């Protein structure tokens, strides 16, 4: 997708800002980000592109995508669109590309807002320079990256070290220690890495989106502290799943923690999910994962014995006999070079049946084949009208009716999104007895 493919461009009748998020779950930090976004971009409307039933760390969402849509619409978002599952469960690069290209394809979005651990103008300028660097990597970068990987670093750590070394070389080793420390600090934050990927995707795809950075306050991405108003989503999940059981968290203590960290309406929804055992995590899907991996192993064993297998695939086959649960299996497969989340994403793709054909179809449309609307606010009807006029990809509101108008490739990707949610809903039913409507009968969330 390039600017040449655009029509007259972003609508000049309204100011629309896009946000890419998971809201897993929605918390005070997200509310702060939306509020700051509206101030910084003078937005008439905010569109959120969110992950669906599964999220980027290779796990199911804590609660279903329609509840998370409601959370967003109640706290400053005007329209919620689902990020297709292939992009939502891929690396930071693909996750960012899918979200950015989807927002750009709507034809009405002028800005994209995201959080970053960038406390100064210098930090934000450096993130911009790093986005340029990664968008157009010099040949020396790959050499440094290979060396760091061979030394035993994980990919994220190796990438950061290789970037610093390469930038030092490009500066003829004149880079001062403060700048090196700044680079290392910025590249150590998952939120900054995503921020860089958003800006990189905009450059590579030559998109007309203006980045707007909101400095994150409170806990960092991996911070587990919940004794703060601005706790991270991972801290909330860790608290809920203490000792790998959502029932280990006392309801009174959970209520106190949520009162401190999330808006009131979100607290009520999460407490209800707690009472009905409706929180999902990867280990709830362990049996289905085992059956799928076992089926894949039998299928590959009966095919060409000379077929090359990756090192990870060999480790999966060798460890399958001792499989106990999803999380333990990932831990058993983990190496210095491969992170827990990267392995969990690989298993999730196998679990969902994401093959080379589906990956190619998603890549061909920049991971943005359509815009599937999950919900909107009634007072956002002018925005919907603008979308219908300017969007360069199909807008989906009633997929039972609209699926037939899609190309075969788009239909296959939509079917994958539907299948992912069907599996999620089935496990939810097995665990709780809660039966949700299937994707063809599920109404939009309208507030």
Automatic annotation (TrEMBL):
GO cellular component terms given for this protein: cytoplasm
Where does the record say this protein resides?
Cytoplasm
Record's Pfam families? HIGH_NTase1
Top enzyme class, one word, equals ligase
Q: Which GO terms describe its molecular function?
A: ATP binding; ligase activity, forming carbon-nitrogen bonds; tRNA binding
Per the record, what are the reactions this protein catalyses? cytidine(34) in elongator tRNA(Met) + acetate + ATP = N(4)-acetylcytidine(34) in elongator tRNA(Met) + AMP + diphosphate
Report the EC number(s), separated by commas if there are several.
6.3.4.-
Q: Which Gene3D superfamilies match?
A: HUPs
**Transmembrane regions listed in the UniProt entry:** none
* Top-level taxon of the source organism: Bacteria
One GO biological-process annotation of the entry reads: tRNA modification
Sorted alphabetically, which InterPro entries does this protein's record hold?
Rossmann-like_a/b/a_fold, tRNA(Met)_cyd_acetate_ligase
Keywords, A to Z, come to: ATP-binding, Cytoplasm, Ligase, Nucleotide-binding, RNA-binding, tRNA processing, tRNA-binding
Q: For binding ATP, which residues are annotated in this chain's numbering?
A: 20-33, 115, 191, 216
What PANTHER family does the database record attribute to this sequence?
TRNA(MET) CYTIDINE ACETATE LIGASE
UniProt cross-references to HAMAP family, sorted A to Z: TmcAL
Function of this protein?
A: Catalyzes the formation of N(4)-acetylcytidine (ac(4)C) at the wobble position of elongator tRNA(Met), using acetate and ATP as substrates. First activates an acetate ion to form acetyladenylate (Ac-AMP) and then transfers the acetyl group to tRNA to form ac(4)C34.
Q: What is this protein called?
A: tRNA(Met) cytidine acetate ligase
- The record lists the organism as Eubacterium ramulus ATCC 29099
Name the gene that codes for it.
tmcAL
